[in-house]
Amino acid sequence: MSQLLSKYHAPNGEGLIQHITPENAGWKYVGFDAYQLTQGQIITLESGDRELCLVLISGKAKVHTTKANFGEIGQRMDVFEKIPAYSVYVPHNDKVIVEATTKLELAVCSAPSNGKLPARLIGPDDVGVEYRGKGRNQRHVQNILPETEPADSLLVVEVYTAEGATSSYPSHKHDTGSDTETYLEETYYHRLNPSQGFCLQRVYTDDLSLDETMAVYDHDVVKVPRGYHPVAMLAGYDGYYLNVMAGPIRQWKFTWEKDHAWINTDAYPKKDS
Question: Which keywords accompany this UniProt record (predicted)?
C-alpha cells in the first residue's frame, strides 16, 4: 500500500479515525485528524504551537475555548447535503472542548502558528461557494478558510465532485517556492456516496520519481507532499473531499501540467467533427 494513503480505522476511545502529523507524514506543516463521535461524547484539544480549524463535517456540537463560547453549532447532518459547514478557528496556545450533541463527524486541521488571532466561528454565511471547471471537470467548491480570511498558515476548502467527473484537474502542483508556485503540503480527506464506493487519486512529479495511483475509499486520507494530484470519480459514486494546505507562505499559487492545460481553454469540451 502506498505510504501516501492513510486508511480509515475504527474509532478509538476518543473517536479518532485519522491521525496525520508532520512527523508521521514526513513533512513540516500540515496536521489532520478526523473523529466520529457519539451523541454526548466530549473531547478536549490543546492547540500548543499550532492553529486549528475544526470543521463539522456532519452533525451538531457545543464548542468553547478558553476565551470564547460558541454554544451549539452545526446544521449539516449529512456531508452530501452540500450546504456549507460550521467551523471554528482556534489560535495557538489555546484549548477547545467539543461536546457532540448529535452523532458528529469532526475534522481537525492544524498548522504552525505564532500570531495573535482570536478564536472565531466560521459560519455558513462566511463560506464562499463557487463552481470550477466545465464539462466532466466541474466541481462544487466551498471555501472555509481561504487566503483572503485571517489565519497564520492554514488553508481549508471543501470540494464536491459528481460521479464520472474529475477534480483537482487539469493536473496542478504547488511544491516549489517561486514566482508561480508556493510550497504547500496538502491532505485530502475523502467521502464517497454511496459509502461503499471508491475513487482514484494519482500523485506524481514531472520526472515520475514520485508516481502513485491509489484506490481511495470512504474516510481515507491521501497525503500530497509534492507533485500533481488529480482525482477521478467512478460511475455511480459522488465524491467529497476536505483539503488542508499549509506551507511557509500562506498563499495558493500553482502551475498546471503543460500537457493537460488545454482543458482550461475553449478547446474543451471537444466538438464532434
Answer: Isomerase
Nearest to 86 by CA among 47, 125, 44: 125
pTM listed for this prediction: 0.96
**Amino acid identity at 266:** D
* CATH number assigned to the domain with residue range 5-264, chosen from the 4 options 2.60.40.730, 2.60.120.10, 3.30.1300.10, 3.30.70.270: 2.60.120.10
φ, ψ at 80 (rounded to 5°): -85, 10
The answer to whether the CB of 54 falls within 8 A of the CB of 85 is no
Angle (nearest 5°) at CA 83 between 234 and 191: 35
Calculated CA dihedral for residues 161, 20, 90, 103, nearest 10 degrees: 60
Cis amide leading into 269 (omega within 30)? yes
Give the pLDDT of residue 271: 58
> Which residue in this structure is represented by grid cell 504547500?
184
Mark out the alpha helices in the chain (DSSP H runs).
22-25
DSSP states of 188-227: EEEEEESTT-EEEEEEE-TTSSSEEEEEEETT-EEEESSS
